Amino acid sequence: RDVILLFFFLLIRRPPRSTLFPYTTLFRSIEYFRRVISIKPKDPFALMSLAQLLMKREEFDAVGQVLKLRKAYYPYDPVNIKMEGLLYAARGDWAEAASSYQTFLESEPQNAGGHLLLGLALEETGEIDKAILAYKSAIHYSPRLVEARARLSEMLLQQNKPGQALRTEKRRGGKGGRSR
User: Is the predicted pLDDT of residue 109 greater than 90, yes or no?
Assistant: First the structure.
């Protein structure tokens, strides 16, 4: 009988599965995932969620510690590398961010988001030609990736290539494209 009551108590207190972060405030969400990790230290979802939440609060040292822990448990998970790139970018270290994204893309070469992030990092480091190639790769793998098309158009206009920029815009349905 006590077991049944305990079961219902836990069922009522358990956060709903339908929500990514069960609490509405950032602080409560962070505390929730810290509790989950204290119970299940190897939970990959909880570790990544905690890192993302700490990133929102700009607690970069704490993010680094969580990523280090996650890498210890899951050393070959490419998501770790991508998250490290985001951490470097948040700190303004664009060269390291680009290096992380390139490493990430070695394991997931068809990841359009990874190519977009690489393009943004390369653009920040001033490597415009490489950024253009990264944006083109992102578009190749995900033709509807609007941000990649917009960045590519902007880069081509900066290089005084308005014809190529216009073709890029036409493909995404922007200026010069057919209206629907």
Answer: yes
